[in-house]
Amino acid sequence: MESQATGSGQVSLEYPLDQADKRSKRLKEKLRHWGRGAQEKSHWLAERLMDRRVCVGVTGLSGAGKSTLLTSLIYQLSHPQKAQLPGFAPALNGDLLGAELKPALDSGLPVFDYEGCLSALMSHPPRWPKSTRDVSAMELHIHLRRHRRLGGGDYKTLILELRDYPGEWLMDLPMLRMDFRDWCRHQAHIIASDTRAGLAPGLLTRLAALSPEAEAKESELQALWREYRQFLLDCREKRKLSYLQPGRALLDDEDYQLLPLLDLRGFSADQLKQLPDGSNYQVLRRLYEAYVEGKVAPFLESHFKHLDRQLVLVDMIGTLFAGEQALEDMRLAFTHIADTFRYGESGFLSKLWRPKVNRLLFAATKVDQVLAADHDALRQLLGQQLQQTFTGARHRGLPIFSEAIAAVRCSHEDQRNGRRMLVGYDLDGRYLGFENAEIFSRLPSEKSGWGHYTGAAPPQLRPPQGMDSGSIPHIRVDALLNLLLGDKV
Ligand SMILES: Nc1nc2c(ncn2[C@@H]2O[C@H](COP(=O)(O)OP(=O)(O)O)[C@@H](O)[C@H]2O)c(=O)[nH]1
Ligand SMILES: [Mg+2]
């Protein structure tokens, strides 16, 4: 059957049966193989049943603030005397005794570099953690005092397993539902639906002119791929777009050569199938399938299987100030995230994998870049974007939460000439005061209204000094903890 592009930029897809079956069988075999490994980890299960272990996935596009939040979170939980966590009941009641960081058992994933990130934040002058683009895992053993009903008390340990992975990988998951032809049409549709083509008009014209049946020339495909990768990077850097595939191309410089053929008109699915092995279409199709099976499917299995909760970090401020297109693209990304986590659907993904994530949290990060009076508007904006995408069937009873946080509060508010403003240090260490463009709790209804935000993004700030002798100041990390763990402590 045909795939159909719908107005929202989504594609509803069904495979020609034999091909879909083969792909699905191959993937299923792989999944079963991995599944056996997981069964051996029965101690996990026991701990889960006793409510002692909760596995939280932390994701967000690169720069969203994952490493910084993890560092702040671990620090707050391990230094209960210094931390300010009034919104997290165990801390408020003095029952939070501390936490220890351990490698995640059996995950085979590198441990999160907490020491490195913390020492960057606490150095003189303070620095942001180095940007990382890989996945990591760790366990935080949180020690708590437990009160007995009949008086007296004892202790319990909650194991918080944190798995941090790039949001760019999440953006690749829809590829599991598309064959190469579907993907080409999907990409062509997305490129045609906004103004991103303006970033690389020459390249996109050449891609559209690349004949599916012509013999593939490796040097030509390589050159096109280099340009296409730069186009994707520009979509991210210059337009702050979120839903970009292949996502891994934004994180490493491997030679994926994953190019969409943008003009398949004039070829039916059958005709494409008959094209010779050495044609552009067949060569690119094989590269696409190798990527989906070699990179995307293993990630789904090795990572997602264990997650109980998922936290998605969003640079809502950066996106809002980048303008309407960036925000629309973020919504499109949310739609795909919703599709990934939805329950009980009969779609292709859920045949392979049934998500057991029982809570999905979204947090707007870095809200210390705007005045406290705007925090609520930000939270409302994020909530509205989520409401628009997570409608009815999309999340089938999966509870969604949203927050607005700053993992490390880099500014404080001051009054100058009767006006509230933010003061802090910029990345070069210059002391500065600024007032951000007011954030409204509704998006502009007219195109012209976006002028209020465009080009008015607040400055990037440096972490504050003196955290090594005191605590890490934050905004609402305690509220986030409560959403993540409140029912488990
Ligand atoms: N003002 C402010 N900036 C932050 C905060 N957290 C992260 N940032 C900025 O965002 C950048 C990326 O953060 P990072 O944690 O490395 O993001 P990751 O790529 O998702 O791990 C940092 O280098 C900082 O410039 C925060 O709480 N407040
Ligand atoms: Mg990072």
From TrEMBL:
Name of one Pfam family that matches: DUF463
InterPro entries documented for this protein: P-loop_NTPase, YcjX-like
SUPFAM superfamilies the record matches: P-loop containing nucleoside triphosphate hydrolases
Protein's recorded name: YcjX family protein
